[in-house]
Amino acid sequence: MLMRDRLETCGLVDIADRLEAGERLSFDDGVRLFEAPDLLAVGWLANRERERRHGGQTFFNHNIRIEATNVCVASCLFCSFARLKPGDPGAYTMSLEQAWDKLRQRKDQALTEIHVVNGLHPDLPFTYYVDLLRGFKRIRPDVHLKCFTAVEIAFFADLYEMSDEQVLRELMEAGLNSLPGGGAEVFAERVRRKISHDKCGTDRYLAIHRTAHGLGMRSNVTMLYGHIETAAERVDHMLRVRELQEDTGGFQAFIPLAFHPDNSQLRKLPAPTAADTLRVHAVARLMLDNVAHIKAFWIATGVDVAQTALWFGADDLDGTVQEERIYHMAGARTPESMTTHAIGRLIRAAGRQPIERDTLYNVVSMPA
Ligand code: V47
User: Fold this and answer.
1) How confident is the model at residue 367 (pLDDT cuts 50, 70, 90)?
2) Which pLDDT value is given to residue 1?
3) Whose CA is nearest to atom 5 of ligand 1?
């Protein structure tokens, strides 16, 4: 069957034609894309958009993850990483030296990024975070620091009695280069109330990204999918991202994060299927016409599905990662890291062209 016939059969011809004409999709279009039975037709549309922007180019970077503490006062139902108090079983907080050692140990690696995400620790002083960044920059001045979600920024502001902007400014002064996209979860109030009621809300999350963009920083934005959210709530989430992006242009990548149920309070829920993962990436590519990159975070999706997502709208695979804990404590069976060689090989094997980028999408190398 020709693709046009498939689109006709599943009722997506008008959306295909509007995309062809460069028109922006509506909320209803997004819901229809989630509900259309033909996954391949949705994927084909997303791939057309992906190739229009990036051809076969597929981006990744050479990064490490440092999670300096898992002590966290928030009680998000989906989380298996957090421990409420210092001293609780499994709780840890690295000393600054221990955190810096993670970087020192990799002095021979051609890293370009450190990605830091922490729990919301009630007792550490603000100087811990400032010194953490300063120390990283002392050890490796060339490495980009993508640290602290908007949820952490809001927590710092409340705990240390500063404005969100003041926190951002002081961290930038210490070396912060951009914000990661964690903490977005699902923006719809119904879902947020149920799964993450006691941390920074949607409006403040978005306001912090707006402020960061205004201060000249770039950021990413995520969506945690595959738990209690509806198709309409997924589309609503994407549209709130699109709206802010229209004003600031500061988001670099949208990252759908596949929910992992193990060891969390939502452990009775099934994990999202591969078909759902491919569809979420595809719909994101189609709805977010003003966001350059859709990232398939291979740690969350699994390597095989991330590779397949490169034909369903995704053009980025995150990076080498190393020592990721949030997903591995929630049951992820992906490796804890991949070499740049391994990532390059799996991109090539998917028929795409690997490009090692830095955090700001400057080309670092084009693996053979
Ligand atoms: O906000 C926590 C998610 C996020 C679970 O900006 C879970 O480049 C699934 O945001 N199952 C942190 N997800 C990670 C993150 C991220 C990842 C990769 C790249 C970037 C980037 C950001 O992890 C949290 C939360 O949404 N998370 N627990 C879980 N059980």
Assistant:
1) confident
2) 67
3) 79
Total domain count, the chain:
1
Supply the CATH number for residue 214's domain: 3.20.20.70
CA of 130 to the centre of ligand 1 (A): 23
314 C-alpha to ligand 1 centroid (Å) = 17
Look at the chain and count its residues. 368
Q: Which atom of ligand 1 is nearest to the CA of 224?
A: 26
Q: pLDDT over 70 for what percent of the chain? A: 100
pLDDT digits (tens, 9 = 90+) for 131-169: 999 999 999 999 999 999 999 999 999 999 999 999 999
The structure's pTM equals: 0.98
251, part of any domain: yes
Q: What is the mean pLDDT of the chain?
A: 97
Report strand pairing: 218-225 vs 251-258: parallel
Q: Which two tokens stand for residue 15?
A: 């959306």
Residue 2 is classified by DSSP as: -
Domain membership flag for residue 28: no
Which domain, by its residues, includes 248? 57-365
**41: in domain:** no
SS3 219: strand
Range 55-58, long-range pairs (CB < 8 A, 24+ positions): 55/353, 56/351, 56/352, 56/353, 57/315, 57/352, 57/353, 57/355, 58/310, 58/315, 58/316, 58/317, 58/347, 58/350, 58/352, 58/353, 58/354, 58/355
Tokens 């994407």, located at residue? 238
Ligand 1 mutation target, pool 113, 257, 325, 329, most atoms within 8 A of CB: 257
6 belongs to a structural domain:
no
